[in-house]
Design brief:
The complex is a heterodimer of chains A (126) and B (185). With 126 residues, chain A is of the alpha/beta class. Helices cover 37% and strands 29% of the residues of chain A. Chain A has one domain: STAS domain (Transcription Regulator spoIIAA). Chain A has helices at residues 37-53, 71-86, 103-115, and strands spanning 15-20, 24-31, 58-69, 93-98, 120-124. In chain A, helix 1 runs parallel beside helix 2. Chain A is globular, with a radius of gyration of 13 Å. Chain B has 185 residues and is of the alpha+beta class. Chain B is 43% helix and 23% strand. Chain B is built from 6 helices and 5 strands; from the N terminus they run αβααββαααββ. The interface between A and B is medium-sized, with 22 and 27 residues.
Chain lengths: 126, 185
């Protein structure tokens, strides 16, 4: 049984989250709460752990519908990429699906790519 | 909130810090120029309150309705990050004012709040770094947000400058500071 799809999705007010088999998580809406780590850090960590357990070669994080995130939320994506980068055994490619039409995504993921390029891939949908 | 032609919270030009003039980085429209014009929106927040999310939601909705999409997104980001900084680092004894201001050619967000001298000094230094190399500063702050460190990572202003590509301006009058992020309309 897939551990990845069994990860409990948190309830967050402004962001909709979907986990779909075999390896995709989709986030849409906005992340504006002061400390989004309360809702999302544990969730991302659980996805990461599940991806390792499932021996996934790639995780697709579709953020193209996230129209706004605050700095604290960007740190969560950086943390996730860093966990993958620091993984010593089995590790996967973390592929962010982004939109060219959303301002924050253009630069944030390019910068993240420069920090963790060994494990990151970026795909543009629009 | 109200509209007016003159912004009473703006410190006099004599006290402006010449952040943009000192730095050697490439200039952007609005660099080194205090934005003056018509105030479209003014919201007064109590420091330490939970005003950030709903004020940002209101300003975002307003900009999305009144400005071009790309400009609205950039100003929305600036509104959030400037207000967040003021709420998190400002003095709790005074109000925070966020304004959306437009001139004939420019539009911007200004957040005015009280701050202690150490904060003003840190802000001035950070804005100089951003002016000199916004992309490099953004990367440094992103890296520091992983590794931690003192002072705390200042990713917000780096986002405003690099991600949103807005010109930042700091004005100081005693303890009252006004940070403005602006771009062409």
């Amino acid at each position: 049984m897939s551990q990845f799809t069994a990860v409990q999705v948190p309830k967050a007010e402004t962001v909709a989250i979907q986990v779909t088999a075999p390896n995709q998580v989709k986030l849409s809406g906005t992340i504006t709460q002061k400390d989004p780590a309360n809702d999302l850090a544990g969730f991302f960590k659980a996805l990461h752990t599940a991806a390792i357990t499932d021996k996934l070669s790639e995780v697709r994080a579709d953020v193209s519908g996230l129209t706004f995130v605050n700095s604290s939320a960007i740190r969560l994506f950086v943390d996730w990429a860093t966990w993958v980068k620091n993984e010593r055994g089995q590790r996967y490619t973390l592929r962010f699906i982004t939109s060219r039409n959303v301002t924050w995504q253009k630069t944030a993921f390019m910068a993240l790519m420069s920090l963790t390029k060994e494990v990151l891939a970026i795909e543009h949908v629009t | 909130m109200s509209g007016s032609d003159r912004n009473p919270s703006t410190p006099s030009s004599a006290s402006r810090l010449a952040v943009a003039a000192i730095a050697k980085g490439p200039s952007r429209p609005g660099d080194g120029v205090a934005l003056s014009g018509r105030t479209l929106v003014r919201v007064i927040c109590t420091a330490g309150s939970g005003a950030l999310e709903y004020t940002h939601a209101f300003v975002s909705a307003y900009t999305a309705d009144h400005l071009r999409g790309a400009v609205a997104q950039r100003l929305s980001l600036a509104a959030y990050e400037l207000l967040s900084n003021a709420i998190n680092f400002g003095s709790v004894s005074s109000d925070i004012v966020i304004e959306l201001i437009e001139s004939e050619t420019m539009v911007g967000v200004r957040v005015t709040s009280d701050a202690i001298a150490a904060r003003i000094s840190m802000l001035t230094e950070h804005l100089l770094k951003l002016k000199t190399n916004a992309e490099q500063t953004f990367l440094e702050e992103l890296r520091r947000s992983v590794t931690g460190g003192i002072p705390r990572p200042m990713l917000g202003l780096a986002r405003v400058s690099h991600e949103a590509g807005l010109a930042l301006d700091l004005q100081v009058q005693e303890r009252r500071i006004a940070v403005t992020a602006q771009c062409r309309r």
